[in-house]
Fold this protein.
Amino acid sequence: MDISLDKTENNEALIKIKVNEEDYQPGVDQKIKEYSKKANLKGFRPGKVPPGLIKKMYGQSFVVDEINKILSENLSKYIRESDLQFLGEPLPVREEMSQLDWDNQKDFEFKYDVGFAGDFDLKVDKKLKVDFLKIKVDEKTVDETVDNVRRQFGEESATEEVAADDNVTGKLVSSAAEVDRDEVTIDLRECQKAGNNKLIGAKVGDTITLDSKKFFTDSDYLARISGMTEDQLKAAKNKFEFTISAIKHIVPASLDQELFDKTFGKDTVTDEAGFREKVRETVAGNYDRESSQLFEYKIKELLRDKAKITLPDNFLKRWLVETNENMTEELVDREYEMYNKELQWSLISSQIAKGQEIKAEHEEVMAEAKMQILQQFGGPAIAEQLGDQLDQFANNYLQGENGDNYMKVYNQVLSNKIMTYIKEEISKKEKEVSLDDFQKQVSKL
């Protein structure tokens, strides 16, 4: 048997495996011998069927089985021991397979298309500079958040006529886009002046024509609250009929101890100044999470740019279609850029983990599983009540799905450790920006 690899182009190659009769015949003879001992054919005593008859009846299927076994074992070993970083799985050249003459051939050659990643050299050090955009929590944001909290715990009352800042529920319809939503609630605070002018004064039963791009301060607002797709918005040309079914007027809760306790827990804050400061801290924490997400996104973009990894794009697109039942060429073309980026990042992460000997220990996997369970139960405060049951819950979860859950959490822990290492090695420059400026940066991505 002989295995060779011919590189073609664009990080693709052809693996050729030559299988000769002496490679597979011993295995075939062994199968014939074993089967003749247990075969039960009419006219022969059990176990006394002549091997020649077994060969005549089943010889070809034994040859095919033995060759497939040899191909699988040796192809896997070749890929595993190769210096190349193969991607996806080998794809048999089916045109050649169909021309095989199993009845008369003694020696066979099989060909497989493969793809591999190009070599790359990436240094993670202080020369790599990434801005960390810290969002400034201004007084306007604190005021808006306090107003939202007061409305959240305020008293609702039904009314017949829309007034400023009301919530209006109704039926949203577009025959052109085949949209028919019975319960869509619009917050008038999300409306532009034109939207408020149309809604304020309207009554239950009235039908309003609205343009999703001109009606709201955020053109995506209607899609979010109604669950519409971009295709539906285009089909409707952003114009819909909205028939009012209910109007809710909200009287905001008073800034008193009852509100403070409902928001942050009993006696956590005791006056308006403390409440506002706690709100500021909470908003800052939320903003920091958004800033961290953007920071990590920029890190990945920078490292991908520096690594300049070449991938076998044509092979990978073909592999995705051939190995995924629900995948089409159109779907691959639409989503391939994202897949390409994720694959590049996986290669970069693997190189960093190997070079720095970064691993996820079992104790770390358990700790992460426990944290995820606590979040589902309502947060770390519930840990004491669960006691030893928490370990049992974590073990049961990690053992589920035939070990897939364990690998999922393991990869998550490893990914976090790799990112932590990168953040410690690169140069981080913190810049304070407004929320609007931050959102503009995000919108450009």
In short: The mean pLDDT is 91. The first strand starts at residue 2 and ends at 7. The two ends are 51 Å apart (CA to CA).
